[in-house]
Amino acid sequence: MISPPTLDLDYLMETCRQAGAAILELYDGAIEVQRKADASPVTLADLRSQAIIADRLRQAFPQVPLLAEETAEQAPYAVRRHWSEFWLVDPLDGTKEFLKRNGQFTVNIALIQHRRPVFGLVYAPALGKLYYGGPAFGAFRLDPDGKRTRLPEGERPGGARRIVGSLSHHSPAMEDYLAEERRRHGDIEFVQMGSALKICLVAEGRADAYPRFGTTMEWDTAAAHAIANAAGRRVLRWGSTEELAYNKEDLRNDWFIVE
User: Fold this and answer.
1) How far apart are CA 210 and CA 215, in angstroms?
2) Residue 166 clears pLDDT 70, i.e. is over it
3) 59 Cβ neighbours under 8 A, 6+ residues apart
């Protein structure tokens, strides 16, 4: 079993950067989009990023299984159920934001042990920001200028309660939640953002909560979940005090809230 504090952080960061560079090579050109069985988009950038990550993780950690978004069907639950430890990867989280070219997409790499995320990296290649950490490691943000900040950055200054939500997915349930928040707290600020950056915003202390009422997959949340936990935040099943769990037979997450 890997001890997160002993991980080769430089190697994992370079893995993120190489995957991000492969994505950015395709960012400004014509992007061919295919549709998966669930109608969600997949591009050559997703596939190139995943190939780089899979190759580098298998080189460095040949004993640790890998579950990635674009090859999830290759690891049926009959096999996965015996995994006590594995890498969980989303090579391009926020494909819709990538297609919109708004910069709000990420490379997500998480280490799962006994169904919990113990370490994660979330890299936003277009923004040059890299978040990483886990409960036994601490949570950090590395900026493009090389500045390293421990998360959370500090108490958020007073003002309206800040709620972060999806840029591409809105729902009646979110409207009901926002209405209840306004009733309880008065004015609120609602910030829309793409990909795992929403969870990272809460981990930074720049937002108070991120509720998600809709379908997400385990690879969408795991890396940022580890970082949020390390920053003193929790990623709870909606209406529960239980944290999201991983390596379920059904890889879809329940509704959840980060706070």
Assistant:
1) 14
2) yes
3) none
Separation between Cα atoms, residue 146 and residue 129, nearest integer Å: 9
pLDDT at position 154 is: 72
Q: Is 31 exposed, middle or buried (0-12, 13-18, 19+ CB in 10 A)?
A: middle
Three-state DSSP class for residue 129: strand
Instruction: Tell me what pLDDT residue 37 has.
Output: 60
**Per-residue pLDDT at 71:** 83
Q: What tens digit of pLDDT does each residue of 51-60 get?
A: 999 999 999 9
Nearest partner of 98 among 39, 165, 32, judged by Cα: 32
Cα–Cα nearest to 197, from 181, 174, 220: 220
Output the pLDDT for position 215: 93
Say which residues have a Cβ less than 8 Å from residue 195's Cβ, sequence separation at least 6: 93, 94, 97, 104, 105, 106, 124
Using alpha carbons, select from 163, 161, 160, 155 the residue that is nearest to residue 232.
155
- CB distance 210 to 164 below 8 Å: yes
Write 63-69 long-range contacts (CB < 8 A, 24+). 64/2, 64/111, 67/219, 67/247, 68/219, 69/217, 69/219
C-beta of residue 208 within 8 angstroms of C-beta of residue 57: no
Render pLDDT for 235-257 as a digit per residue (tens, 0 to 9). Answer: 999 999 999 999 999 999 999 99
Task: For residue 164, give the H/E element and its range.
Answer: strand 161-166
Residue where the block lists tokens 């979330």:
122
Q: Does residue 86 register a pLDDT over 90? A: yes
173: three-class secondary structure by DSSP: helix
Query: CA torsion sign, 8 to 27 to 164 to 170?
Result: negative
